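FORM 12-B: Structure-to-Sequence Request
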């Protein structure tokens, strides 16, 4: 298989292997932690979950730490990224352990959300740093290939982590706290794996490094302004358009995620355990779509270009999403999960490549952090819209049609810019 051959080529780069190990362990832990939160918030038998409750939980977990994103970008362009991976993962391990204690203590929900918020806030530094560091461990000729395989491998690791969480939950008598502790252990492993990378290897350049926190924070406003100006330059307009398109596609993915959650919880199952099993199946099938995107995207980008591949992904989703989603039946929706996994990840790989190749190294950290903020705001906004549109059982023709129209608008707008 071509993907196996490409992976073998990349694995010849020793530092790429080491960075990939950090990513796999870190995102595997994310998968474990996220499933623990989902089961605790959405699928606990004693909780009567609604779309509004899901949207509220997403807002609490995602919107506040979106404020961290700009600071993360500026600091990533000043702090050694290897150190971010080391100390960030150790901090997440400690906070995840605290989350487990809170789950067992019967504390108010807001205190649990604060703990979970802290874990995901640190996650912004780690994920943005992984993307910003990738051009430091492969050459420019293999950057598209690395963008296809590395983030996708991380997504698959998160999927495997989610599967591990389901297994641990069964073995540990439905204990979400035990699942969270497994995630904490994986965060520690990721921190230890980062020690195999030299502190200076992943950048930024020494003259940009400011070890003192105060010095870095004072320059935040100026740094963000410079980053936005950098992205607005004519040479980087393709990157700005790709980011806008990816944000809208993330909105669509978020709205459909809430719909599938509600369908699994109420429309397709008679108990929370059955609903959780269906959700696990949907996540696994979507992960298969991510893997397929990694296989197809390098050749597709080579043939169509990054923008052309984004157009193809958005256009395919615009056609297939309503065709598969409107019956609101299990099998078509699961097929749609695969299609949306493929198109969303394919567009993301192309967007990552455009941003990395267009943005100078000294700006990559802040641009990728803003990229993360756009992702989070789009996802939370989608959850809020879904909460207004979804009935209790999750079946909403209006939501499916609205999402299809957005996908179509993304494809048409990107195609117009491409012709110009």
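FORM 12-B RESPONSE
SEQUENCE OUT:
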């Amino acid at each position: 298989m071509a993907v196996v051959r490409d992976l073998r080529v990349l694995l010849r780069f020793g530092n790429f292997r080491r960075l990939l190990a950090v990513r796999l362990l870190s995102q595997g832990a994310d998968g474990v932690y996220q499933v623990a939160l989902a089961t605790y918030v959405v699928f606990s038998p004693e909780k009567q979950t609604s779309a509004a409750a899901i949207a509220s939980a997403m807002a609490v977990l995602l919107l506040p730490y979106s404020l961290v994103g700009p600071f993360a970008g500026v600091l990533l362009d000043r702090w050694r990224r290897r150190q971010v991976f080391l100390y960030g993962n150790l901090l997440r391990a400690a906070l995840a352990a605290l989350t487990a204690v809170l789950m067992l203590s019967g504390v108010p929900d807001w205190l649990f959300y604060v703990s979970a918020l802290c874990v995901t806030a640190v996650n912004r530094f780690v994920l943005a740093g992984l993307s910003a560091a990738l051009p430091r461990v492969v050459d420019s000729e293999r950057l598209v290939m690395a963008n296809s395989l590395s983030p996708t491998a991380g997504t698959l690791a998160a999927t495997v982590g989610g599967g591990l969480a389901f297994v641990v939950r069964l073995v540990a008598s439905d204990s979400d706290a035990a699942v969270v502790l497994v995630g904490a252990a994986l965060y520690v492993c990721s921190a230890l794996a980062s020690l195999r990378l030299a502190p200076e290897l992943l950048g930024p350049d020494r003259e940009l490094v400011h070890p003192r926190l105060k010095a870095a924070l004072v320059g935040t406003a100026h740094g963000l302004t410079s980053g936005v100006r950098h992205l607005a330059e004519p040479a980087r307009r393709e990157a700005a358009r790709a980011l806008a398109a990816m944000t809208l596609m993330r909105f669509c993915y978020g709205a459909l995620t809430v719909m599938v959650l509600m369908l699994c919880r109420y429309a397709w199952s008679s108990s929370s355990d059955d609903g959780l099993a269906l959700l696990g199946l949907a996540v696994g099938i979507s992960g298969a779509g991510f893997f397929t995107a990694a296989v197809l995207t390098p050749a597709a980008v080579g043939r169509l270009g990054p923008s052309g591949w984004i157009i193809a992904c958005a256009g395919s989703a615009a056609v297939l999403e309503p065709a598969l989603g409107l019956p609101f039946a299990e099998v078509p929706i699961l097929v749609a999960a695969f299609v949306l996994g493929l198109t969303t990840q394919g567009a993301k790989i192309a967007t990552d490549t455009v941003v990395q190749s267009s943005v100078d190294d000294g700006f990559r950290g802040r641009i990728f952090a803003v990229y993360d903020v756009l992702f989070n705001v789009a996802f939370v906004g989608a959850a809020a819209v879904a909460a207004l549109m979804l009935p209790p059982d999750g079946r909403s023709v209006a939501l499916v049609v609205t999402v299809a129209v957005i996908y179509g608008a993304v494809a048409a707008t990107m195609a117009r810019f491409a012709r110009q």
